[in-house]
TrEMBL record:
MF terms (GO), sorted A to Z: NADH dehydrogenase (ubiquinone) activity
The protein's name: NADH-ubiquinone oxidoreductase chain 3
UniProt cross-references to Gene3D superfamilies, sorted A to Z: NADH:ubiquinone/plastoquinone oxidoreductase, chain 3
Membrane-related topology note: Multi-pass membrane protein
Summary of the function given for this chain in its UniProt record: Core subunit of the mitochondrial membrane respiratory chain NADH dehydrogenase (Complex I) which catalyzes electron transfer from NADH through the respiratory chain, using ubiquinone as an electron acceptor. Essential for the catalytic activity of complex I.
UniProt gene name: ND3
PANTHER family hit by this protein: NADH-UBIQUINONE OXIDOREDUCTASE CHAIN 3
Primary subcellular site in the record, as a coarse category: mitochondrion
InterPro entries: NADH_UbQ/plastoQ_OxRdtase_su3, NDAH_ubi_oxred_su3_sf
Length: 116
């Protein structure tokens, strides 16, 4: 057996064992006290389930998108050491152009405006 086959067998056996153990363990049923919000031992002042603005969600999604873009473009300076650096820079330019078009579209639609 080679190393890859051994690792696949071990991980499959471990996954199966953990799945079977989860059926034998009792289900955890939290009571009312565990589900109530905790504020330093005092009764809560207000509801912990306040409505959430979708603007925060949109900003978070846009942040993740552009954070991923930067993570993909960070190794770009080492792209000139590849056999075809022009192809690497062309693909990076295409990715940058698509993300810039997406940003321009969001801006034009008013998705980045905080107050209406």
């Amino acid at each position: 057996m080679n190393l890859v086959t051994t690792i696949i067998c071990i991980t499959s056996a471990l996954s199966l064992a953990l799945a079977l153990v989860s059926f034998w363990l009792p289900a955890v049923r939290p009571d009312h006290e565990k589900l109530s919000p905790y504020e330093c031992g005092f009764d809560p002042m207000g509801s912990a389930r306040l409505p959430f603005s979708l603007r925060f969600f949109l900003v978070a999604i846009l942040f993740l998108l552009f954070d991923l873009e930067i993570a993909l473009l960070l190794p770009l300076p080492w792209g000139d050491q590849l056999p075809t650096p022009l192809l690497t820079f062309a693909w990076a330019s295409i990715v940058l152009a698509l993300l810039t078009l997406g940003l321009a579209y969001e801006w034009a639609q008013g998705g980045l405006e905080w107050a209406e």
